[in-house]
User: Fold this.
Amino acid sequence: MNKNILLCGVGGQGIVLTSKLTASCAMEKGMSVMSAETIGMAQKGGSVFSFLRLGENIYSPMFGKGQADIIIAFEPAEAVRMLPYLKKGGTVIVNTNPVIPVTSALKASGYCGTEMLEYLRKCDIKLMEVDGNKVCRELGSPKVLNMVMLGEAIRSGVLPFTVDDAVDAMKKTVKPQFAELNEKALRNQN
Assistant:
């Protein structure tokens, strides 16, 4: 069964690594995988998103609006921005903690992500909210948000592999000294 996955957030949140781990898990299951990242102004805290397609007879990494089975959003505003890509009945997993854009901070505009979460709650979607900052504090590192989000996405049942599959892929990718912490983040249940 084919799956269209959209990961989104801002630069530095680990979206590209999460995309690679997701692709690796699917390939281990014998699935075809195509992916495309758009990172643009990522180094300046700008939008980052990754399209992933898993399954059979996949000819392009991109998919159109209304075709994503799941959106894994590392930031609430980015979830809202990418929501048109979600198919009817699709799942959104969103980190409830916003990343305040520099322009918003300089203008003291008051963006706190709450309005984005309220909007998502009113949509006809399957919504899972993750307090990523809280989980990362409990684990002792803000650098494992991507593993927390991937673990939640796997537990949603939308992705065609297990947390054990993701742990195996992660151990082949990250430096050994970071494997234990990343595994704890993947296995953490929000």
Q: What stands out?
A: The first helix runs from residue 15 to 28. The mean pLDDT is 90. The helical segments are 15-28, 76-82, 102-107, 114-122, 132-139, 145-155, 163-171, 176-187.
